[in-house]
Amino acid sequence: MVTALLLVPATAWYLLLLVVPLGILIVFSVGTRSDVGGYTPGFTFQNYLDLPTRWPSFQNTLTLALIGTILCAVVAYPLAYYLATRAGQKRTVLLVLVILPFWTSFLIRTYAWLQILGSNGIPAFLEALGVDPKPVLLNNRGTVLLGIVYNYLPLMVFPLYVSLDRLDKRLLEASKDLGANRVRTFLQVTLPLTAPGLISGALLVFIPMMGEYIIPSILGGGKVYFVGNALVDLFLQSRNWPLGSAAAIGLIALVIVTVAVYLRLTRVRGGRDVSLI
Question: CATH: 3.30.300.30, 1.10.3720.10, 3.90.1200.10, 2.40.420.20. Which one for 19-270?
């Protein structure tokens, strides 16, 4: 009885902030658009049948989210390794520098890159050095990926740092004593033992990337289209709430399926279940 009472606040917040909004989306997704836009009660699956017309935005989102996650892992692992094993007395300062971007607005950080990569930023600097014509650094996939990696990198660094910091260093010494070089030690000892941190970081980065809207809007200039951008257009521009709700449900389903497949593959390759930290 006491346990049930203790769970009441968390359960209430869970229902209010997750279950109820999801239920509203499901109800809207089977409705119809009224003549003046918005939602009219009804029951039809036509909105889900129309989702293939939005497939390019889904494909673009999934592709860039996967690439962005991989790039974050590639950049974050050496950084986390250095922080955990080589930083020494500078560790605290470096950790603060990693988390420092989170002390400013996500929107401001993205607009900062807009100024750096815009015509008055790096292109103007290169032109002053005699590089002609000015390179176009905005409104493309590469720029969006740069913004994604910059903004989400700390979410990948810290789970990896915790895993590497907790790693039993005696296992590394034992591997070297048995004749393994640094590469084999990393591949056979360090990487498998830090896999939980890598998986945690990948999920922390991948899931919010799938719902990203600000970065493709600002750095992509409308030429790099995510599902988040499609949802804004459907809800605010065309006011097709039922189709927008169906697209949102489709995005949730895509995230769930992708994460489930990813976790399944990691468990099969590892030969055992991997627990998140």
Answer: 1.10.3720.10
Residue 173, CA distances (Å) to 99, 136, 162, 247 in order: 31, 49, 20, 52
CB atoms within 10 A of CB 146: 19
Domain ranges within the chain, ordered by starting residue: 19-270
| Positions of E strands within the chain | none
Q: How far is CA 132 from CA 114, 140, 143, in A?
A: 21, 20, 20
- The mean pLDDT of 147-166, rounded to a whole number, is 92
The predicted-structure confidence for 79-106, as pLDDT tens digits, reads as follows 999 998 888 888 889 989 888 888 888 8
Cα–Cα distances in Å, from 188 out to 119, 175, 184, 185, 231?
47, 9, 6, 5, 44
Q: How many CB atoms lie within 10 A of CB 208?
A: 15
- Could you tell me if 215 and 151 are in contact, meaning their C-beta atoms sit under 8 angstroms apart? yes
Structure tokens at 191: 């990487």
Q: 3-class SS at 62?
A: helix
**pTM to 2 decimals?**
0.84
Nearest to 97 by CA among 145, 151, 154: 154
